[in-house]
Amino acid sequence: MNDWTRLADITPSIALGPLDGRYRGAVADLVDHLSEPALNRMRLHVEVEWFIHLCAKDAVPGVRPLTDDEVALLRAIPAEFDADGIAEHGEIEKVTIHDVKAVEYYIKRRIEGTTLAPLSELVHFACTSEDINNLSYALMVKGAVEEVWLPAATALVEDVASLARDAKGTPMLSRTHGQTATPTTLGKEFAVLAHRLGRQLDRVGRQEYLGKINGATGTFGAHTAAVPETDWIDVSKTFVEHLGLTWNPLTTQIESHDWQAELYADVARFGRILHNLATDVWTYVSLGYFAQAAAKGSIGSSAMPHKINPIRFENAEANLEISSALLDTLGATLVTSRMQRDLTDSSSQRNIGPAFGHSLLAIDNVRRGLKTLTVNEAQLAADLDASWEVLAEPIQSAMRAASIAGVPGMENPYERLKELTRGQQIDAQAIRTFVGGLELPAETQERLASLTPGSYVGLAETLVDRFLR
């Protein structure tokens, strides 16, 4: 193998991971929010907005109101952060060996020789790196969730809800513990999943994104030492709120990341419910309840020409497991920090992108998979017609009600139906013979005699109509 072409030397460079390689198209929108260049761009944004805010609040002696052109010049720095800017920042960082300090120097280069040059020391004034980082990450994650992940997840839930409505009246045999059980409708089962997923989206939609800017140990020490007469608590609070975040007044050097743990737990829980959907659909496909449309020219198996594998749902399972593992790890590690600061969060947070990327990829796969499904009503009906034993439940329940109402001959209803059905092959005739031998009220007798596994679905359709959003 030593004489093989070295793949690491090929240009353009080859991605090590699947999100930036094979699956790039499905997750590319996250690059604008959760990539390393996105982090540095957001750091530029926070730094220049802090500069503008300090001037607007007259926070430091010697500052002055900025002109519209000066504000535009500052805000153009992150807006114009392109490939050349990324490369330039990288070159500065090679010297500083510090990414946030490289951001500071990058900005100072941009205002050198302008009317802002005399105010250049406002860049990163009284800040520790974590003042910039925590605000940057909060804005990045907020943008990724609200602009990319949440719209995709919402569209998925709408797809599931649409399937539920379309199939709300399609009877289906249930399987509790893997065995035949009280029938439901296909639509009602998907309504349950849509409802569960929707609750998690509501939680994500209400998420707070916290931020702080209060110095090296959260005391405003440098601020008050430099300019004691300024109300730095107000300057901090109004700045964080100006960015669209919730101000955290009590922190160490780092913002505590509790909000991140809360968010990642909800996203991971959404993923686990979606994993439940994927495995259920996989099972329904294996039972023949769904047929899958084959894409023209596609191959299901390299050896078995007849196969159409449920690969979208299997792909989703794998990616949801990876996503949930990453989100769980982030949530567990980010809420702890030794004393006032350690740097474990710095490395951990660089994996937020992969965590959301695998989730987004799974969402994309499930949506694609759902579009290939066609309900096989004939198979659903055949399964129901082969499972008349499920009517033991309504018959014994009707007998119980009749017994309570004083009808004679209704003793031991559960035990009698157990003897009739348990471990037995039961058909329509056996059920109707049993019902016919009971001296039930005429209305009850008629209702049970007309009942079939396919009609024994209770209020399933009504539940979809009334409670599915």
UniProtKB/TrEMBL annotation:
<dbReference type="InterPro" id="IPR022761">
    <property type="entry name" value="Fumarate_lyase_N"/>
</dbReference>
<dbReference type="Pfam" id="PF00206">
    <property type="entry name" value="Lyase_1"/>
</dbReference>
<comment type="function">
    <text>Catalyzes two reactions in de novo purine nucleotide biosynthesis. Catalyzes the breakdown of 5-aminoimidazole- (N-succinylocarboxamide) ribotide (SAICAR or 2-[5-amino-1-(5-phospho-beta-D-ribosyl)imidazole-4-carboxamido]succinate) to 5-aminoimidazole-4-carboxamide ribotide (AICAR or 5-amino-1-(5-phospho-beta-D-ribosyl)imidazole-4-carboxamide) and fumarate, and of adenylosuccinate (ADS or N(6)-(1,2-dicarboxyethyl)-AMP) to adenosine monophosphate (AMP) and fumarate.</text>
</comment>
<protein>
    <recommendedName>
        <fullName>Adenylosuccinate lyase</fullName>
        <ecNumber>4.3.2.2</ecNumber>
    </recommendedName>
</protein>
<dbReference type="InterPro" id="IPR004769">
    <property type="entry name" value="Pur_lyase"/>
</dbReference>
<comment type="pathway">
    <text>Purine metabolism; IMP biosynthesis via de novo pathway; 5-amino-1-(5-phospho-D-ribosyl)imidazole-4-carboxamide from 5-amino-1-(5-phospho-D-ribosyl)imidazole-4-carboxylate: step 2/2.</text>
</comment>
<feature type="domain" description="Adenylosuccinate lyase PurB C-terminal">
    <location>
        <begin position="337"/>
        <end position="457"/>
    </location>
</feature>
<keyword id="KW-0658">Purine biosynthesis</keyword>
<feature type="domain" description="Fumarate lyase N-terminal">
    <location>
        <begin position="21"/>
        <end position="316"/>
    </location>
</feature>
<dbReference type="InterPro" id="IPR013539">
    <property type="entry name" value="PurB_C"/>
</dbReference>
<dbReference type="GO" id="GO:0016829">
    <property type="term" value="F:lyase activity"/>
</dbReference>
<dbReference type="InterPro" id="IPR008948">
    <property type="entry name" value="L-Aspartase-like"/>
</dbReference>
<comment type="similarity">
    <text>Belongs to the lyase 1 family. Adenylosuccinate lyase subfamily.</text>
</comment>
<keyword id="KW-0456">Lyase</keyword>
<dbReference type="InterPro" id="IPR000362">
    <property type="entry name" value="Fumarate_lyase_fam"/>
</dbReference>
<dbReference type="InterPro" id="IPR024083">
    <property type="entry name" value="Fumarase/histidase_N"/>
</dbReference>
<dbReference type="InterPro" id="IPR020557">
    <property type="entry name" value="Fumarate_lyase_CS"/>
</dbReference>
<dbReference type="InterPro" id="IPR047136">
    <property type="entry name" value="PurB_bact"/>
</dbReference>
<dbReference type="Pfam" id="PF08328">
    <property type="entry name" value="ASL_C"/>
</dbReference>
<comment type="pathway">
    <text>Purine metabolism; AMP biosynthesis via de novo pathway; AMP from IMP: step 2/2.</text>
</comment>
